[in-house]
Design a protein that fits this description.
Layout lengths: L2 E6 L5 H9 L18 E6 L2 E7 L10 H15 L2 E7 L6 H13 L3 E6 L7 H5 L9 E3 L8 H11 L17 E6 L6 H9 L4 E2 L13 E5 L2 E5 L2 H5 L6 H17 L2 E7 L6 H13 L2 E7 L6 H14 L8 E3 L11 H12 L5 H14 L12 E8 L4 E6 L5 H15 L7 E6 L2
Helix pairs in contact: 2-3, 8-9
Bound molecules: guanosine-5'-diphosphate.
Guanosine-5'-diphosphate binds next to α6.
EC number: 2.7.4.25
Organism: Actinomyces respiraculi
Function: GTPase that plays an essential role in the late steps of ribosome biogenesis.
Length: 434
């Protein structure tokens, strides 16, 4: 069924409007922002059409502040809906939060109907007209409370709601080249690896029709497929390491990571893992990019070093144990052909999308088997979850209370066991309903 979401700032009358559609009082509609109900989506029918209506109205109290709550709510609604009714309180007029939500909606490309609510009498219609300024077309004057005009806004919503839902469909395959950054501290072997894999096949990007972007990038063919390697000029240019150059290298690394989909972090296994290695890895995770770890210079590893390395890896890199980790020797070409499989795995994990139904069913199972520990006589529960984004995956959990860091890690671990997410950080947002 197509999904219609009703969003807007707290207390603008979303739930009242949803109740009009549902034709019964499912929700306890309060006059103050806050709780309405546990569910978010309901089967609905209007003008003979069946659809799912999403009311995020119950999720508006947020520990991080109102604006972020509304933004999250809009993010969620956008991710899970085919069309949106944006409800604005006409007696208040346009707020910065409304404008912010409009920008998000516009970026999403979802069709929107604008409801100017609380127009309880014809004398107030001027208030509604002022909302033309949001740039969403005609504001439908509504009094959700009295029912006035709500039929018109719902008819308009039916006109923009597609017959068939697109939100459950997988995102279309991207035709463009995957973007890879090779990063790591100086002398770990980045340029050696680049030379090993580029061979004679390398093409500087600005020579390749249609891909001209940044002349520091190169297209490299691996396994018969083309990949865009980011900022390879920075790798090829051997900079003498002075303090200044070091700072420059850090900036350059940051830039390459930002532009990439997958960052390949090289480690020199002939030396202990350093703080700088860990920092580069953290940069990748913080940027939300897919991560592949490479143990380079494997030819220099003996039995003793191998044992040490296993220990170091367990201690320093446990938090990224989800990343593909391959051993190779760039200088000799040994196992460099394993890079492609790791890249593919990481991209797949990074773009994984879990349907909302499956996600909630799974979280229900987890909580049934292992509920959150009791805290002060209360037990925080996850009521609803949805993946609002891929690349990287971002999941928002709506809960009845704060989740302990330990429980959040447990959830992440179970999600990885169930759904993979190989090579990808997972961003988990928690919204507490009070
Ligand atoms: P970059 O600064 O990360 O680009 O590192 P380079 O590619 O310039 O490599 C630094 C040094 O490590 C050079 O002397 C390379 O020859 C050496 N090196 C790179 N890869 C390997 C490897 O797999 N095995 C060995 N033994 N040496 C390597």
């Amino acid at each position: 069924l197509p999904v219609l979401a009703v969003i807007g700032r707290p207390n603008v009358g979303k739930s009242t409007l949803v109740n009009r559609v549902l034709g019964r009082r499912v929700a306890v509609v309060q006059d103050t922002p806050g709780v309405t109900r546990d569910r978010v989506s309901y089967p609905a029918e209007w003008a003979g059409r069946r659809f799912t209506i999403v009311d995020t109205g119950g999720w508006e109290v947020d520990v991080e502040g109102l604006d972020s709550a509304v933004a999250t709510q809009a993010e969620v609604a956008i991710a899970m809906s085919d069309a949106v009714i944006l409800v604005v309180d006409a007696t208040v007029g346009i707020t910065e939060t409304d404008a912010q939500v409009v920008r998000m909606l516009r970026r999403s490309g979802r069709p929107v109907v604008l409801a100017a609510n609380k127009v309880d009498s014809p004398a107030q219609e001027g208030d509604a007209a002022a909302l033309w300024n949001l740039g969403l077309g005609e504001p439908y004057a509504v009094s959700a409370l009295h029912g006035r005009g709500s039929g018109d806004v719902l008819d308009a919503a039916m006109a923009i709601l597609p017959e068939v839902s697109a939100v459950a469909a997988p995102s279309p395959a991207e035709g463009s080249l995957h973007r890879i950054a090779l990063v790591g501290r100086p002398n770990v072997g980045k340029s050696s690896l680049l030379n090993a894999i580029a061979g004679s096949e390398r093409v500087v990007v600005n020579e390749l029709a249609g891909t001209t972007r940044d002349p520091v990038d190169e297209v490299i063919e691996l396994d018969g497929r083309q990949w865009l390697f980011i900022d390879t000029a920075g790798i090829r240019r051997r900079v003498r390491q002075s303090r200044g150059a070091d700072y420059y290298a850090v900036l350059r690394t940051q830039g390459a990571i930002e532009r990439a989909e997958v960052a390949v972090v090289l480690l020199d296994v002939s030396e202990p893992i350093t703080e700088q290695d860990v920092r580069v890895i953290q940069q990748v995770v913080d940027a939300g990019r897919a991560l592949v770890l490479v143990n380079n210079k494997w030819d220099l590893v003996d039995e003793e070093r191998r044992t040490m390395l296993a220990w170091e890896t367990e201690h320093d890199l446990a938090h990224v144990a989800w990343a593909p980790h391959i051993n190779l020797a760039a200088a000799t070409g040994w196992h460099t052909n394993r890079l492609v499989r790791a890249l593919d795995a990481a991209i797949e994990g990074w773009t994984t999308r879990i349907p909302t139904g499956r996600l909630n069913a799974f979280l229900g199972e987890i909580q049934g088997a292992t509920p959150h520990p009791l805290r002060g006589g209360k037990q925080p529960r996850i009521l609803f979850a949805t993946q609002v984004q891929t690349a990287p995956p971002r999941i928002v959990l709506f809960t009845t209370g704060f989740l302990d860091a330990g429980y959040r890690r447990f959830i992440e671990r179970r999600l990885r066991e169930e759904f993979g997410f190989v090579g990808s950080p997972i961003q988990i947002g928690v919204r507490v309903r009070e």
